[in-house]
Amino acid sequence: MVERIVEAARVVLVRDGYDSFTTNRVADEARVSPGSLYQYFPDKSALVTEVMDRWSAEISDRVAASLAGAGPVDVQNPGTVRSIADALLTALEVDAGLLRIVWEELPAVRHRAAQHALELRVRELLAVYLSAAGVTAGDPAARAWVIVMAVENVAVRWVLDQPKISRAALLDEFTALAGGYGPRG
């Protein structure tokens, strides 16, 4: 029942937007009574929080899987960098509707903690990845922060705005950006 309610909440949030999101609409979508919904979620806020927490975990898991599956660690290899950037874009595109709600409709206070947790996990993974790749000069945490913030913001805007920049051209730009972080003595 909880899974059905959360999935219905996600559907309603994307379909109707945050301002029109109500527990009654979620109950209707889930085909449960409002009373049943309230047994698990006391209000709209709790439902939105659960949807956001799950979505953040999904994105984080996809990015972690792409880093783990990237093959031999070689930031100098444009193919490795490109495949990781491509995986990030794919992870964001999976649910562009929910991405739009999070980025453009939810009050920042509603999703800030989940966004920061996601960014922190990705930065930690990237810092480990960079260290394993032999990137030893400078502060790995600072590098990870710069890369994650730049790529996250550009990737999100690319998915949402759909500018006249091809996916291939965007991946070329991400590869060039990351190219400056190759191993140094």
Automatic annotation (TrEMBL):
Residues annotated to bind DNA: 22-41
SUPFAM superfamilies (alphabetical): Homeodomain-like (SSF46689)
Gene3D superfamilies: Tetracycline Repressor, domain 2
UniProt-listed InterPro entries: DNA-bd_HTH_TetR-type_CS, Homeodomain-like_sf, HTH-type_TetR-like_transc_reg, HTH_TetR, TetR_C_15
Pfam family, one: TetR_C_15
Record field: transmembrane: none
Keyword DNA-binding: yes
Keywords tagged on the record: DNA-binding, Transcription, Transcription regulation
Span of domain HTH tetR-type: 1-59
Domain of life: Bacteria
PANTHER family: HTH-TYPE TRANSCRIPTIONAL REGULATOR BETI (PTHR30055:SF234), HTH-TYPE TRANSCRIPTIONAL REGULATOR RUTR (PTHR30055)
Name used for this protein in its record: TetR/AcrR family transcriptional regulator
Taxon lineage: Bacteria, Bacillati, Actinomycetota, Actinomycetes, Mycobacteriales
